[in-house]
């Protein structure tokens, strides 16, 4: 392909809305172009790389025995109402009505759709197991689209779904897909770390996320470098123990704390460490208020709290509700004698046995000192659980060593869904005794467009992208320095043909531009191998060959007739 025959736009300046390097480079290198917030057009270079990621995903899915299908993006509301997710998915769904006033959604995922399909097709154990997958566009109405393709409203995803006769068979399929994912990301040039995760709205069973570690990652990952324990912060636990024994609690004392609402403000006002305080927050769980208490220097983990309460929905209570159940405004609430005596109170396990703590007095402008949570509150042993976000320095729940926190970009996830969806749809099969049995499901997603950007975030430098050969838009860029000289053009054309005969895709920069412009663009876009063909080089005996990942000192000068073989070996490497 000749540069002058395709459509490539490179930019010298970063887009104003780009916050991370990969987003900047996506736009500057002409991979994508923004249409509106969270919406991007894939330009020719971007489409080539996107197709290569898809090809890798398809190859590994096919090798793992999965069968490709394509389901409609537009999904009837009735499917989602069957599982209750029409309401629980909330504002993230793009919902619409057709001219007949029938409700539908642009699919953010497809568990309901595929379960309905399998229910109508599978009737016997002889048809199982089966794993279906599609590579399809998904839609989510993100509150704040950001980071380019990382958090966009429209994205390309590979979603796969397995159907098995029982949990044991489903477990085998799960690990088959898990290992296929390891191969997918490795072939894309990524080191993707599998971590334990929370199933969220998908289900409560086992799940792993695959993360590419990067400072720009949106997700926090708890790691133990001693034993390898890894989990995202929604799921991560620590080896927590009840509060250390202290001297007996003193008498409760009410302290006026005017204009001091936050832990930081009250801590500063009283001259005490934040760990001496109890942070009390009021949530609404399925519409009913509940108070959660955690150490003053820690944060509530909403996911853990939701699971502990067994709630379908969880949100911070509004100001009016907080006042109604505690008798005070937010900032002055606590577990001692709230105005609503039926208010459920729960606390993090590290507060069990805690004495001499400072809590809100349920009275505006006041706090209480010397609180003994066992003596002075309604908390029972059953009300304590692991309810905080794990932090650096916590103790690993597996080996007892210290946890560190890193950032990650999620590129894929595998779930054990169990029978959550098949029970809702009454998707059953008949066993060899002609008995009806519920099908057991798994779910497997790869963010194809997100993986494309993750490659850039993982592999770039100050000059631009460094594509691995497997997903580079063109594996080789031949910089033709003298396009007006027939002999130079001849060498370039012959090399292009020789490389393409080896299955290597090539772009020839035949523009009438200065060498420096061509080199900068080649580095910015990040083609895996750059070849320089010019009159001066040929006079001196050869063409220049350099891997994008290497510095200038590693440039090779090879004879034109040897160049194709040298480049092939570099790409294989």
Summary keywords:
alpha+beta; YbaK protein; five-stranded mixed sheet; 16 helices; 31 strands
Write structural notes for this entry.
The structure is a single chain. With 573 residues, the protein is an alpha+beta fold. The protein folds into three domains: 47-211 and 405-454, Bira Bifunctional Protein, Domain 2 (BirA Bifunctional Protein, domain 2), CATH 3.30.930.10; 253-385, YbaK/aminoacyl-tRNA synthetase-associated domain (YbaK protein, Alpha-Beta Complex); 474-572, Rossmann fold, CATH 3.40.50. Helix content is 28%, strand content 28%. The strands form eight sheets. Strands 3, 7, 8, 9, 10, 11, 12, 21 and 24 form a nine-stranded mixed sheet that branches. It has a five-stranded mixed sheet with strand order 16-14-15-17-20. Helix 2 (44-63) runs antiparallel to helix 6, helix 2 (44-63) crosses helix 12 (448-458) and helix 13 (486-501) runs parallel beside helix 16. The longest helix has 21 residues, at 167-187. It is globular and about 95 Å long. The mean pLDDT is 94.
Determine the fraction of residues in helical runs and give it as a percent range: 25-40%
For the residues shown, what is the average pLDDT?
Answer: 94
Q: How many E-type strands?
A: 31
At CATH level 3, the topology of the largest domain is: BirA Bifunctional Protein, domain 2
Overall structural class, as computed from helix and strand content, comes to alpha+beta
**For this structure, what is the CATH class of the largest domain?**
Alpha Beta
Which geometry do the CA atoms define? Answer: globular
Largest sheet: 9 strands, mixed
Using only C-alpha atoms, the radius of gyration works out to 29 Å
- The CATH homologous superfamily of the largest domain is named Bira Bifunctional Protein, Domain 2
* Uncertain residue ranges: none
Q: Tally the helices: what do you get?
A: 16
CATH structural architecture of the largest domain: 2-Layer Sandwich
Give the N-terminus to C-terminus distance in angstroms. Answer: 24 Å
User: How much of the residues is beta strand, in percent?
Assistant: 25-35%
- The domain tally reads 3
